[in-house]
Design a protein that fits this description.
The structure holds two protein chains of two kinds. Chain A is mostly helical. Chain A is globular and about 105 Å long. Chain B has eight helices and 26 strands. The longest helix of chain B is centred in the N-terminal third of the chain and has 19 residues, at 78-96. The chains are: A mainly alpha, B mainly beta. Chains A and B meet through helix 2, helix 4, helix 8, helix 11 and helix 14 of A and strand 2, helix 1, strand 4, helix 2 and helix 4 of B.
């Protein structure tokens, strides 16, 4: 079972004194030494402190020694000081009263002559994390930020973030963010600059959920002056700080192509960096900058290929896995670019299975006419592998490649060889694959027929042993039985084999196999009725008597069908089959795009977008104003929403929106694969609407009327602004409950139950479209009109929102689905209402509220 | 952004545990270890280096039998965290001389000092061995390296080459030598890991060399160093390169390396930071002469019997030896007994049949260049084989170290240290080693 926990206090062994007595022991020794100035006292203290920290590490609670530790800390010995700081940082939070004791000496140390002591003390002071001590922090932090030593400044900058987490208001009141911004743009030390950037990103990201201003400040980080300032110094930064800067640059939207090329030229040599994180961050910049230039984008793939491959083969297995996952993503997006590099994706026998699995998928993806033979030969070697899961995956990969229909003959031969291998798992996979094959190859009937004699022989050989232990896996057996039914006209023995299987009905433990058997017998019956009649009768009888519900039901269903009309039964059980060309991809293209947007992050490793594995409050700076793009239930809408529910709701929402999304994309892409849409979440709408947004921001402040210049731009972009500043419909006498509450589950349930009462299309004002670029702005705006958002999602230019509202002094609820296409400024609402008679009035209200969006 | 960082022993004990942001629960180390140990039911698969449990991301790297683990809750670059963990392990090694459980336990206070400076509130600060020196005050407690099993790539030099002072690999950058003076020296190691796959007829299917030029400097005063490589070295696929030229597919360099004259005379200049670091990583798929040829034969000799013959030929200069050669081969799963037969002159050979995972193991302590070794093994099966025996056994895989051998022919032509004075003449060591990464012959 579980490994023994590393907590001695839970399982005190005779050789190790229990934590408690040791702590008492330490306390008395510390007391003895506290006031001692004897020579050697410091050494004795060091040993004692070490013991305390060692106990702390293994999880023994030594917080009760706090007082004694602080008493001993009056020392000039820096090693002692550091150990004491470490201890205090760990336990101050649980001892807020005693922590006050430390403030004194920490504050004194913050003024020490030695910059190192100042830095250390300041770091410890900020790490106390005791809310009632924040007043003591502001002074030392303020002077730390101005310290002439860069070490103290780096510590102070991070100290500001720590303070923000203890007390955001204190941090903001002291105007620290502004100080950091100044430091970021002026400090000579690059580590100070990097820390300022981290700190500001963290603070403004957290603030932006409640403050418009913070959101704007955060946007300025990706403005041209800041980006260029950082880029020009990029080589002075440490490699870790370079990653930070590059991550920011990837969010920057250059104004024109020459800017893009300038940035890429500047960063070209970062691809030769030994640190994989730098190389990946640079790759992300390149990939994202060139999204709108299909040909250059492809060149980027070619350019980053070699450095990434080098990263995969250098470094530890863990590092190479991280890079390989990214390469995997690129291969999946553009297999043709990697088709000549397939040998790099061959598995090595000593690689961990998580690496092998990725490689197998990559091999499958890059297979084409010219390399299929080599790849399949290689994959067949893995099928004999001692590593069973990988052997399975390999055969599955062969099957998938076969479905792509290159060199099918060779592959079928290989699959048939597997059948001879007498390894259970191999047979299973091979059978399942041959099943896929045969369904895929209906188009290639000739090939199929030519293969038949040999094939059926093989099958019969296996079937001969079916009662023995050779094919035990239910899946294999099911596949085999499926084939018997499907191709019974070509296998002379089929009815008899099936019959013997039916005779052994009771010995078959897997319901899945019994289900398949029922169907196979039915199919066989329609093809060779006289021979199968007996078996069918027996199978139906056994099925009806079966204790398994599904088997019973299916038998009954077949029985009734046959009773009704044999021809109908045949058309149900044995319909003309369509060829399986390619199996449905497990992931939607939307999810894949989202993962690509989050290149160089955990999303790539987990192969899912970040909203699926992070809590909302922990979405870090990576997602950067991504709230709109993330399909997320609005937190304020339903406090009761548990995470699981949330995910489920997200998924459903996602499913709902895929089709519209695809349509939108097709319309927008105009032949080039990577045109404007889907840049980086909502912060970056397409370049056009971004510049529009900038204009609108600058021009609409204050007045509700956009100046003529912005209209001209709107006109150029073909936006219909007639609704914009025109007279807005006056709100009808329908009032809503401003504090309406609805949880997501109920919303979904209602949305499914209620009929559509109203659906309208209308245009959005250009200001409204522009304001969409600011995350959550629409949600806040609508909320001020007592219409609450429950879920939002989509990616520029297509956004989707779900709102709800409640009629004042009534339980009547309105549900709204709002679709907005920001490039055409068109929107559509669908309203469902408890009280259908008022839905027109509500619609007017909704539209009037929406028309004011962006003009306020 | 990192929330916690901890180092676990192989048994899952916390040796060092640092909580930076306190947004991950305290029992994370326990959760992590259980997850890694029982990744799936049959324990056959390794846990991936990054995984998520209940919203917490766990990153880990294995170094010297220790698990370096980071946790967090936000979406970050996995590469960054893993690189950082690896770097922290290297930093600790630079400071402690030896990195293992024992040295870490003895020096955990020093390690805490390092961790405090390397990461602040989850953000990476500096990882430069040199810069950190001024912030580290604990003296490392050296452990007796003689009794410790040697670790890592560098350890091969101890075994392989008597001329090397064995203390070098275990020397801390901060500890003083007995005698008070530090020895001025610099080590440049060219480490090449080769992967070769032979098909059943001995033809090479794939081959690759992954090389690193690693440097470890104990020079004072940061002198500039020039490192000259082969002049006929070319990078990227060029069509007109002569057959003798060394053609690298790609390479990358450490930050400190200046490539100003690299294009003209293949010289790297750098001011080496202290501690161990890779100057250059390179990758080569150009065909090269594999150091070993492997012939393997498997024949059914009766209904319940088969014979395996494995022949290994060392295809390199007799002045060079390969060390710790290990040949392995999986055999059919019904094998229950194996009788080995070795050449008469094969001293230092051991053979073993690992019953649990049905594998032959043949280890040869030393293989002299040009030598040929043969192993015969008679297999007995408990059951008759139904299928093709060739599909049930193999492939033959091999691991080895060959000091003073460089498969790629990439060379350090000279190593020049900018002299401060005439008396200043530091020791310079340039060493080569070729190791098997994946060296496989199929049946």
């Amino acid at each position: 079972m579980a490994p023994p926990p590393a907590h001695p206090q839970r399982s005190p062994s005779p050789s190790q004194p229990s934590g408690k007595s040791e702590v008492t022991d330490l306390r008395s020794q510390l007391r003895q030494l506290a006031g001692s100035r004897a020579p050697g006292a410091d050494d004795a203290k060091r040993d004692l402190f070490k013991k305390v920290i060692s106990n702390m590490t293994i999880g023994i609670d030594v917080s009760s020694l706090f007082g004694e530790m602080v008493m001993c800390s009056a020392t000039s010995d820096i090693v002692l000081k550091k150990m004491c700081y470490l201890y205090v940082g760990n336990y101050a939070k649980v001892n807020p009263d005693l922590a006050l004791l430390t403030i004194n000496f920490l504050q004194r140390d913050c003024k020490d002559d030695d910059p190192m002591i100042r830095g250390l003390a300041l770091r410890s002071l900020c790490s106390l994390r005791v809310a009632n001590l924040v007043e003591y922090l502001v002074g030392p932090l303020g002077s730390g930020l101005k310290d002439n030593n860069s070490y103290v400044r780096t510590v102070a900058v991070i100290g500001v973030v720590k303070l923000y987490h203890i007390s955001a208001s204190t941090c903001l009141d002291a105007d620290f963010p502004a100080t950091l911004k100044h430091l970021m743009l002026n400090d000579p030390d690059t580590q100070v600059v990097a820390n300022c950037l981290s700190a500001l990103q963290e603070i403004w990201t957290l603030e932006s959920t409640s403050s418009e201003e913070a959101a704007k400040e955060r946007e300025t980080l990706v403005s041209k002056p800041v980006i260029y300032y950082l880029l020009n110094r990029i080589k002075e930064f440490s490699e870790w700080a370079q990653c930070l800067v590059l991550e920011l640059v990837a969010k920057y939207i250059p104004s024109d192509n020459s800017e893009i090329f300038d940035i890429m030229n500047l960063l070209e040599d970062r691809l030769q960096h030994a640190n994989g994180a730098v190389v990946l961050a640079t790759s992300k910049v390149f990939l994202h900058l060139t999204l709108s230039m299909a040909d250059v984008h492809q060149q980027v793939y070619e350019r980053i290929k070699a450095p990434l491959l080098t990263q995969v083969s250098a470094g530890s297995p863990e590092q190479s896995y991280a890079v390989l996952s990214h390469l995997h993503l690129l291969v999946m997006r553009a297999p043709y670019i990697f088709s000549s590099d397939y040998k790099h994706f061959y598995c090595q026998y000593n690689e961990p299975s998580y690496v092998k699995k990725l490689k197998l998928e990559m091999l499958t993806a890059v297979a084409n006419e010219s390399n299929t033979y080599d790849i399949v030969t290689e994959l067949c070697e893995y099928a004999a592998n001692v590593d069973i899961p990988i052997a399975r995956e390999s055969i599955r990969a062969v099957g998938k490649i076969a479905l792509q229909q290159y060199d099918v003959n060779a592959i079928v031969d290989r699959l048939l060889q597997f059948l001879e291998m007498e390894k259970d798992y191999v047979t299973c996979e091979a059978l399942t694959n041959t099943k896929l094959e045969s369904s895929s190859m209906q188009v290639l009937v000739k090939d199929l027929l030519r293969k038949y004699p040999q094939w059926s022989q093989d099958c019969i050989a296996v079937v001969g042993n079916i009662s023995s232990k050779n094919v035990q896996e239910p899946k294999a057996k099911a596949a085999l039985i499926w084939m018997l039914g499907e191709y019974s006209q070509d296998m002379p023995d089929a009815p008899y084999v099936l019959e013997s299987l039916v005779e052994n009905w009771d010995e078959e433990h897997s319901a899945e196999v019994r289900l398949h058997l029922l169907t196979a017998v039915m199919k066989c019956f329609f093809k060779r009725a006289p021979e199968t009649q007996k078996a069918l009768g027996a199978a139906l009888a056994a099925g009806l008597a079966d204790f398994h519900q599904d088997v019973h039901d299916r038998a009954l269903f077949y029985y009734r069908l046959l009773q009704y009309k044999v021809s109908v039964a045949e058309s149900v059980v044995n319909p003309p089959k369509q060829a399986v060309s390619v199996f449905a991809d497990s992931q939607s293209s939307e999810i894949k795009d989202r993962i690509f947007d989050e290149f160089n992050s955990l999303s790539v490793i987990y192969q899912k977008p970040s909203y699926m594995f992070t809590d909302k409050e922990h979405r870090g700076t990576l997602e950067f104003s991504d709230e709109l793009a993330n399909l997320s239930i609005n937190a304020e809408a339903g406090d009761s929403a548990v995470p699981a529910q949330r995910v489920e709701a997200n998924d459903n929402d996602l499913l709902l929106s895929i089709t519209e999304k695809e349509e939108g994309r097709d319309a927008a892409s105009n032949g080039s694969a990577y045109s404007a849409p889907s840049y980086d979440g909502a912060s970056a709408t397409s370049a056009a609407s971004q510049s529009l947004a900038d204009l609108a921001f600058s021009s609409t402040s204050g007045s509700g009327q956009a100046p003529a210049s912005s209209f001209a731009i709107d006109d150029l972009l073909g936006l219909d602004f007639s609704v914009g500043a025109a007279a807005t419909p006056s709100p009808p006498p329908l009032s809503l409950n401003p504090k309406a509450v609805l949880d997501p589950g109920t919303f979904q349930q209602k949305w499914r139950q209620l009929p559509l009462s109203l659906s309208e299309d209308f245009s959005l004002s250009p200001q409204g479209v522009a304001a969409l670029a600011t995350s959550n702005a629409l949600l806040r705006h609508m909320q001020s009109h007592s219409i609450h958002c429950i879920a939002s999602g989509g990616q520029s230019p297509n956004f989707k929102f779900f709102f709800f509202a409640q009629k004042a002094e009534s339980a009547s609820i309105y549900l709204v689905e709002l679709l907005i296409n920001s490039s055409s400024a068109k929107s559509q609402i669908k309203i469902k209402a408890d009280d259908q008679s008022t839905s027109q009035a509500f619609s007017t209200l909704f539209q009037s509220a929406l028309s004011k969006f962006g003009t306020a | 952004m990192i929330s916690q960082l901890f180092v676990l022993s192989q048994r899952g004990d916390n040796i060092v545990f640092r909580d930076y942001r306190r947004d991950v629960h305290k029992a994370s180390a326990e959760t992590f270890f259980r997850k890694v140990k029982f990744w799936n039911d049959d324990g056959e698969e390794d846990a991936p280096p990054v995984f998520n449990v209940d919203g917490v991301n766990y990153f880990h790297v294995k170094v010297a039998g220790l698990l370096f683990v980071a946790t967090n809750r936000v979406n970050v670059s996995p590469s960054l965290v893993l690189e950082l963990l690896q770097r922290i392990a290297r930093l600790i090694k630079d400071y402690l001389g030896v990195l293992n459980e024992d040295s870490l336990r003895k020096n955990f206070v020093l390690v805490y000092e390092l961790l405090d400076e390397v990461i602040d509130f989850g953000y990476a600060q500096t990882t430069s061995t040199e810069l950190l020196k001024s912030y580290i005050f604990n003296e490392p407690i050296m452990i007796d390296s003689a009794v410790m099993p040697p670790l890592g790539a560098a350890s091969i030099f101890v075994k392989g080459n008597k001329r090397m002072p064995s203390t070098v690999i275990t020397k801390s950058v901060v500890a003083n030598e007995p005698g008070g003076r530090k020895r001025e020296e610099i080590f440049v190691d060219v480490i090449e890991k080769i992967s070769v796959t032979f098909n059943s007829s001995g033809y090479i299917l794939t081959s690759e060399i992954d090389g690193t030029i690693q440097m470890k400097s104990y020079l004072t005063g940061n002198p500039e160093i020039r490192l000259a490589l082969n002049e006929d070295l070319s990078i990227g696929r060029s069509d007109y390169a002569s057959s003798t030229a060394v053609i690298l597919d790609d390479c990358n360099f450490h930050e400190s390396v200046h490539l100003d004259s690299f294009d003209t005379d293949r010289t790297l200049s750098l001011v080496p930071p202290e501690g161990e670091f890779p100057v250059m990583n390179y990758r080569m798929t150009q065909p090269f002469k594999p150091p070993f040829r492997i012939n393997a034969l498997l024949e059914e000799t009766g209904p319940l019997k088969a014979e395996v013959i494995i022949k290994v030929c060392a295809d390199f200069n007799p002045s060079i030896n390969a060390n710790t050669v290990l040949v392995q081969m999986p055999v059919p799963k019904f094998t229950n007994r194996v009788n080995f037969e070795l050449d008469r002159e094969s001293v230092g050979n051991t053979t073993d049949f690992k019953e649990a995972n049905k594998r032959l193991e043949w280890s040869i302590k030393k293989v002299v260049g040009g030598a040929e070794h043969t192993l015969r093994a008679k297999l007995t099966f408990s059951q008759e084989l139904l299928g093709n025996i060739m599909k049930e056994a193999g492939p033959v895989s091999m691991t080895f170290d060959i000091p003073m051998y460089h498969a790629s022919r990439l060379q350090v032509k000279y190593l020049q240290i900018a002299k401060k004075s005439k008396a200043h003449n530091p020791y310079r060591w340039v060493r080569y080693v070729t190791q098997a990464n994946s060296y496989v012959a199929r049946l």
